[in-house]
């Protein structure tokens, strides 16, 4: 061990330090830059092609997609109207119950 320290004096020490300054970042980048798919990947993180959206390209597909979107909007609109009507009916029932209590 002492022979290594005796050899690393003067110019040899500078060459060793320069080599470490250059090789350490390169080794670090090589270690973390290779095989990224296996080292840092989470399985089933990204959706597969079957699970992702399919963009319609021709006119028939676009028309079908627009019809489907309009149907979904109509169903949501009806559900929202039904929920609003139910909430309104509950408010009216509460108001009517309160007026019955005040009359007694």
Secondary structure elements and pairings:
Blueprint: H1 2-7, H2 11-33, H3 36-39, H4 59-103
Give your account of this protein's structure.
- With 104 residues, the protein is mainly alpha-helical.
- The chain has two domains: 1-42; 56-103.
- The protein has helices at 2-7, 11-33, 36-39, 59-103.
- The longest helix has 45 residues, at 59-103.
- Count of folded domains: 2
Mean pLDDT reading? 88
End-to-end separation in angstroms reads: 103 Å
Spell the H/E element sequence: HHHH
- Give the helix tally: 4
Shape: elongated
- Biggest beta sheet summary: none
Low-confidence stretches: none
Radius of gyration: 36 Å
Structural class: mainly alpha
Number of strands: 0
Taken as a percent bin, the fraction of beta residues is under 5%
Helix content: over 70%
GO molecular function: unfolded protein binding
Pfam families: Pet100
Transmembrane segments: 15-33
Keywords: Coiled coil, Membrane, Mitochondrion, Transit peptide, Transmembrane, Transmembrane helix
List keywords for this structure.
single chain, 104 residues, mainly alpha, 4 helices, 75% helix, 0% strand
Summarize the structure.
The chain has helices spanning 2-7, 11-33, 36-39, 59-103.
């Amino acid at each position: 061990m002492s022979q290594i320290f005796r050899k690393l004096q003067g110019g040899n020490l500078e060459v060793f330090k320069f080599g470490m300054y250059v090789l350490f970042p390169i080794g670090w980048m090589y270690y973390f830059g290779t095989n990224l798919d296996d080292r840092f990947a989470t399985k089933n993180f990204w959706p597969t092609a079957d699970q992702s959206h399919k963009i319609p390209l021709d006119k028939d597909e676009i028309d079908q997609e627009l019809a489907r979107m309009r149907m979904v909007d109509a169903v949501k609109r009806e559900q929202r109207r039904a929920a609003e009507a139910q909430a309104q009916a509950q408010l009216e029932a509460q108001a009517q119950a309160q007026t019955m209590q005040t009359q007694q």
